[in-house]
Structures are given as C-alpha cells and as structure tokens.
Amino acid sequence: MISRRRFLQIGTVLALGSFGAAERSLGEAQALPSIRTATLVVPGLPGAWDGLVIAQVSDVHAGPYMGRDRLRRVRDLALSLPADLVVFTGDQMDRRPGDAETFVAGFAGIEAPLGVYGVLGNHDHFIDPAISEAALTEAGVRPLVNESVTFVRDGEPLHLVGLEDLTASPGRGPDFSAIGRAGAGFRICLCHQPGGWRRARAAGADLTLAGHTHGGQIALPSRRVNVARLHSPYIAGPYRRGGAVLYVSRGIGVGAVPLRLGSPPEIDLLVLRRAAVGRRAVA
User: What residues make up the domain containing 158?
Assistant: First the structure.
C-alpha cells in the first residue's frame, strides 16, 4: 500500500488537470477558514450543559504555508466566535522545529471562558512532542496528554479528555483508560485521528472530536476522488454509532502539497444539545 503522502501527491496530479483547477485549489489553500456551524444532539448531555458552544481548530500546520501573519488572522477569527470552549485537535505544527515558534507567534493570546485545550497530532511528533507541548503552553493552550479536565455547572460534571496521538512512539501512545478515569458524567474526547473513535467510544466517550483527514484536501465528489478514504471511512463532519458521536474537522492547513480543492479550510463551531423528542440527532 502506498503512503498517504504519496497518494496525495498522485491524486493532486490526477485531479488538477487544468490550470483553472490548479488556480482554484491554490486559492482554497490560502483562504482564511470559513466557519462551519454544526448542532450536535448527543444523548446523555446534562441539562446544565445544553447549548455548550465549542470552537474546534484543527490541523493548523504552522510552517512554510501557514505563516505568522495568517495565523494571527486565524486566531482573531477564532476569538470573534461566541464559543465557551476552544479546542485544538492536533497537527498544530507541520514538521520543523521552527514551526513551533511560528505557531506561538500566531496564536499567542487565544482564550475562551472555559479555557483553551489541545492534543498533539502525528506532525507534532515529527518535531518533538516536548517541543510541541511547550509551544501549546506558551501560546495559552493547555495540552492534554492522556489526561482530563473537569468542568462543573449546576452540579453537573463535564469531562474533557485529551489522548496522545495514535502514532506516538512506544511509551507515549494513547491511553484510552484516561476516558474512564475522568469520572462519571458526560465525556468529550479529543483524539487527533478519527481512527481512534472505536476505542474511545468503547472506553466511554460520548463525543469525540478529531481532525487529521483535511477532509481529503483534494476532494472531487463527482469523480469519487478523496485522498482521506485511503486511511479512514470518517472524512469530515458528524458520524454516529448508537449514542456516541464523532465530529471530524477538515482543518485549516495543508500537508504534502499546498493545495486544497473541494475541501476548503474551516473552523468548526459546534453547538451541543440534549436529546429530545423531535430533535434531529445531527443537524
């Protein structure tokens, strides 16, 4: 099986068969993210947390194609949103040690009423997990590495659990038992790769937030071309299994090639609602 990186490069060549397509894809890659709003109806959400708003920022890939000025504009866009909580779901940095400094310079000052939290992705490990964690902390993002934080509203707990990346080196892998250790109550899990959802929901996660796929980055539905399908059935948006929900963000940055086509960058504004008669599971 060819690598995801190589598949993306080949897919780009096949998909961009004209100058016009190449021009559009470059424009999408360089655009500021749109705001994608989704209402997620999740069974078990306590009444005290009905209406919680989460801003999800994923796959920033601070580096050559995502410089400081553009990052600052993304940060300001995130700060303008009516979010109670901001979460980063991995790949904040691209792959060079200097990318950590770029991320800090761009996102320093990010804040939210309930705080800002994040997990590492595979690209954050390409640098060094310690450097990537330090960059998050310096920017004002609390890293959650197989640990949780608990919020209480009107006596109702809500747990936010962050998992290490699935591809972390031995001794640093994801500890899904951290979900159960968070305690009784509603549990939101941050897991960079959607491939971890099965184990996360088995461990008790009610809602899992992921990224990693870039929505395919090169996605042409009319031709059934989507690079993300090489590795995951979960491409973008909401998915449901029983009472558990997964939400996958298309993210902001780019990976192997600085192009996006049919999968524009986004910040996700997620509104959590209690299950109720007549209310759709995912809107």
Answer: 4-273
Average pLDDT value for residue range 138-167: 97
The arithmetic mean of pLDDT across residues 153-166, rounded, is 97
Contacts of 17 (CB under 8 A, 6+ apart): none
DSSP string, 106-143: HHTT---TT-EEEE--HHHHHH-HHHHHHHHHHHT-EE
pLDDT by residue (tens digit) across 68-84? 999 999 999 999 999 99
Q: Report if residue 279 sits inside a domain.
A: no
Average pLDDT over residues 178-185: 96
Q: CB under 8 Å to 198, separation ≥6 — which residues?
A: none
Measured from the Cβ of residue 114, the count of other Cβ atoms closer than 10 Å reads: 17
Whichever domain contains 190, its CATH number is 3.60.21.10
Summarised one tens digit per residue, pLDDT across range 193-221 is 999 999 999 999 999 999 999 988 777 76
Distances (CA, A) of 151 to 51, 209, 282: 15, 18, 24
| Strand partners of residue 248 | 210, 237
Looking at the domain assignment, is residue 132 inside a domain?
Answer: yes
Q: What sections of the chain are H helices per DSSP?
A: 4-15, 19-30, 68-79, 97-107, 122-127, 129-139, 177-181, 197-202
Give me the number of domains the chain comprises.
Answer: 1
Tokens representing 78 are 């995130």
Q: Parallel, antiparallel, or unpaired for β 156-162 and 147-153?
A: antiparallel
- Kindly report the average pLDDT of the chain as a whole number: 87
With respect to residue 280, please indicate whether it lies within any of the assigned structural domains. Answer: no
In a domain? residue 281: no
For the whole prediction, is pTM greater than 0.90? no
